[in-house]
Structure prediction request, 115 residues.
Amino acid sequence: MKLLPIRICAGWNVRWNHLEENTNAEIFLSEDLLWLQHMDRNNKPDDLFIDVGWYRDTYKAVLNDNWDHDKKPYAEFLDTDVNKVIEIIEDRMFDQHKLKHPVKMPPTYPVPDWY
Prediction:
């Protein structure tokens, strides 16, 4: 089997990845397909994670910050198309990393009219 490509944003660590190109339905009976853990500035895991699994007939991606399954997650996404799920995961990784580690941008200056 071949793993599906996922762009991992800086500040995230892959704990496990079992997202594979597959047509065999037996493989999809797992709730534990992908686990991504956010890392702090000292490269230690913090509480933020993304969990992806297969639930009955759809993929489910969850962005959360604790292990309490009774608490509502920050974001939850369900789809039968694994490529859409991967796209959302990549976007959420980047967005959350920017929030935790804002990039200081240099000041912008107006462009002169003569330019």
Remarks:
- The chain has a mean pLDDT of 78.
- The two ends are 55 Å apart (CA to CA).
- Residues 82-100 form the longest helix (19 residues).
- The helical segments are 82-100.
